[in-house]
TrEMBL record:
Coiled coil: none annotated. Gene3D superfamilies: DNA helicase RuvA subunit, C-terminal domain, Vaccinia Virus protein VP39. Residues 12-74 form the Release factor glutamine methyltransferase N-terminal domain. Signal peptide: none annotated. The keyword Methyltransferase applies. PANTHER family: HEMK METHYLTRANSFERASE, MTRF1L RELEASE FACTOR GLUTAMINE METHYLTRANSFERASE. Its EC number is 2.1.1.297. The keyword Nucleotide-binding does not apply. InterPro entries: DNA_methylase_N6_adenine_CS (IPR002052), HemK-like (IPR004556), N5-glutamine_MTase (IPR050320), PrmC_N (IPR040758), RF_methyltr_PrmC (IPR019874), SAM-dependent_MTases_sf (IPR029063), Small_mtfrase_dom (IPR007848). Keywords: Methyltransferase, S-adenosyl-L-methionine, Transferase. This is peptide chain release factor N(5)-glutamine methyltransferase. Residues 112-200 form the Methyltransferase small domain. It comes from Neotamlana laminarinivorans.
């Protein structure tokens, strides 16, 4: 079966939802994923044929239903690494890569071993990227979702890093390791759920209908629920001068600054590439 007519079908059936650039990007990504044919090879051999195009037709139906391509193929790229994803985990976002660069830059000259904890690890994208780039770090990663932790463990294996995973809720910590006085951290990082229910209407249906709500939403009347719990935890579990890093809701930068100022020095708010308040750091007093 020739591929060219299938590309035309993609362009026609998806035109109501996506730009032609986006549709072509999906198409080429799928061809590479299912048949191992790169975009450049396809351009060089436009009449190339495949035996069975059924997977492409299935993917087209999923795209029409606005399923994100990362869930269709079950993987994505993040911080230059490959990650498996399922609908139990949030698709890692580019903004989070900026947070990771900040942490790596801060920690790269540490001569001694450092302990890092990632709270709400999801796919493990933060924990795995830090472990991969900070050979001196012992990385721990926590999530309340057993399904998310399964994926995160696969991602640690896929990327050949050793991470200690913990299943627990940061809102009600029970795990003996985390309660133990013996374990303290140099760095705690979290990208917790931070989207208020009232912001739902600003979100695209492909996010709302496919990504796990456990990873996204907080009540309108307590949007800093996770940040408050994590800062309280960090006050007890960071070494003195240890650092707390958060990804944050762009609308809550000033509230986050006020929260961190209570117990942290050198509080620094940073914008993402879209000029939105997106991450914050504090150093424990
Ligand atoms: C915004 S996602 C972040 C996922 C990943 N760290 C990333 O940056 O892409 C938030 C994560 O927090 C987890 N989570 C939600 N409630 C939690 C709780 N009470 N304790 C620990 N983790 C929780 C969710 O399962 C989800 O994986």
């Amino acid at each position: 079966m020739k591929l060219k007519p299938i590309q035309h079908t993609f362009l026609k059936r998806l035109a109501a939802f996506y730009s032609s650039e986006e549709i072509n990007a999906f198409y080429y990504e799928l061809i590479e994923f299912y048949f191992g044919i790169s975009r450049i090879n396809l351009a060089l051999n436009p009449d190339v044929e495949v035996d069975d195009a059924s997977k492409l037709n299935e993917a087209l139906k999923d795209l029409e239903a606005q399923k994100p391509i990362q869930y269709i193929i079950g993987e994505t790229e993040f911080y230059g690494l490959k990650f498996k994803v399922s609908q139990s985990v949030l698709i890692p976002r580019p903004e989070t890569e900026e947070l990771i660069s900040w942490i790596i830059n801060d920690c790269k000259d540490a001569s001694a071993k450092i302990n890092i904890l990632d709270i709400g690890t999801g796919s493990g994208c933060i924990a795995v990227s830090l472990a991969k780039n900070l050979p001196n770090a012992k990385v721990y990663a926590l999530d309340v979702s057993a399904e998310a932790l399964k994926i995160a463990k696969q991602n640690a294996e896929l990327n050949h890093v050793d991470i200690e995973f913990i299943e627990d809720s940061i809102l009600d910590v029970k795990h003996s390791k985390l309660l133990s006085e013996d374990l303290k951290f140099d760095v705690i990082v979290s990208n917790p759920p931070y989207v208020r229910e009232l912001e739902k209407e600003l979100m695209k249906p492909n996010v709302l209908e496919n990504e796990p709500h456990l990873a996204l939403f907080v009540d309108n009347d307590n949007p800093l629920l996770f940040y408050k719990a994590i800062t309280n935890f960090a006050v007890n579990k960071l070494y003195k001068n240890g650092s707390l890093f958060f990804e944050i809701n762009e609308y809550l930068g000033q509230d986050m600054k006020a929260l961190l100022n209570l117990n942290f020095n050198e509080v620094e708010l940073k914008k993402d590439i879209f000029e939105k308040d997106r991450m914050i750091k504090g150093v424990l007093k």
